[in-house]
Amino acid sequence: MLINRLSMGFVGGFIARYAIIGLGKIGTAIAKSLIKSGVDPGSISGSVRRVESIARVRRELPGVFVSNNNAEVVKDADVVILAVKPYQVPDALMPIRDVLTGDQLLISVVAGVTTGIIEDLVPSKVVRAMPNIGIVIERGVTAVAPGSRVSEDDVRRACEIFSSMGRCVVVNERYMDAITAISGSGPAFIALILEALWEAGLLLGIPTDISWELAIGTLETSAELLRVKRPWEVVEEVTTPGGVTIRGIKVAEESGLRGLIMRMIEETARRGREISQEIEGSIRSKVIG
Ligand SMILES: NC(=O)c1ccc[n+]([C@@H]2O[C@H](COP(=O)([O-])OP(=O)(O)OC[C@H]3O[C@@H](n4cnc5c(N)ncnc54)[C@H](OP(=O)(O)O)[C@@H]3O)[C@@H](O)[C@H]2O)c1
To answer: Rounded to the nearest whole angstrom, what is the distance from the C-alpha of residue 113 to the centroid of ligand 1?
Structure first.
């Protein structure tokens, strides 16, 4: 029998206590995944901003301690997960900078906020993570980037947490804007492509449900196949000389489909960088005064 490494909060060789600052959409998804992977709800505490959100969290996460007092939530934690909106970071961290310690590992999933900014705000060891929406079904893809104070063990521990919600890769923080574009925004782009495939079926007269089943089934099959084969191998296997697939490939090449997808990701990453700079400016001016 496989014993889950997160069972009872056992991560990296010790029983961990988790604090999640911001039990909104992503914070709640992380808490649910931790519990599903075997962490005792009693070893998780979390916070929200509004009193009325406490009842919602109690309903969604029975057994998890919830409060709107961040100091109370983080004081006994080994791992603190920061999951508030970027502009909420100073309000969430500034009042607890003396409660957080250098022994605690703070994992921020806040998009666009660098480990450098968070290290300026708190004494903790900081790791930045970019999970995608797939974590709600334990099929997430998460990139984890170390800050300047963490050890390899800390990074491994952060990656173990996200591995319980899907896959995790360790990256240099300078790739985070590109990663946000590929795996963060990626599910939206894949959804657009899938929708077009389904609508093409409708255009050619295939009944709605059947077209949907064929389109999504093909996406699933292709993803599985592409785990074991390179893209050009799949193309070669499907394409007969003088056959049907090569006709479609010609249209894709004539219309610059691959260049279009690359430009889409490039532009998304550029916007990520812009937002990151705006956020950094506003957080620094708020903190400095
Ligand atoms: N959604 C995604 O797919 C995704 C993916 C990767 C990363 N992220 C990042 O995750 C972060 C959270 O996103 P989200 O979509 O989960 O937002 P959200 O649903 O608005 O959740 C934010 C939570 O933070 C709480 N909060 C706000 N200020 C607080 C404070 N000072 N102290 C304690 N709690 C506080 C809010 O409390 P109330 O409920 O009382 O308002 C809310 O529960 C963002 O920075 C985003 O960039 C999101």
So the answer is: 13
Q: List beta partners, residue 141.
A: 167
User: Which H or E element spans position 11?
Assistant: strand 10-11
pLDDT in tens, 91-106: 999 999 999 999 999 9
The alpha carbon of 23 and the centre of ligand 1 are apart by a number of angstroms equal to 7
Can you list the domains of the chain with their CATH numbers? 9-172 (3.40.50.720)
Task: Ligand 1: list residues with CB < 6 Å.
Answer: 21-27, 47-50, 53, 70, 83-86, 88, 91-92, 109-111, 130-131, 133, 184
Distance 265 CA to ligand 1 centre (A): 24
* pLDDT single digits (tens) 185-198: 999 999 999 999 99
Q: 147-179: per-residue pLDDT in tens?
A: 999 999 999 999 999 998 999 999 999 999 999
User: Rounded mean pLDDT of the chain?
Assistant: 92
Pocket mutation for ligand 1, best pick of 28, 48, 53 (most atoms within 8 Å of C-beta): 48
The label of the residue with tokens 């890769």 reads 169
144 forms beta bridges with 129, 170
Calculate how far, in angstroms, residue 196's C-alpha sits from the geometric centre of ligand 1.
Answer: 32
Q: Residue 8: is its pLDDT beyond 80?
A: no
Q: Within 13 A of 250's CA, how many CA atoms are on the CB side? A: 7
Give the Cα separation of 103 and 100 in Å (integer). Answer: 8
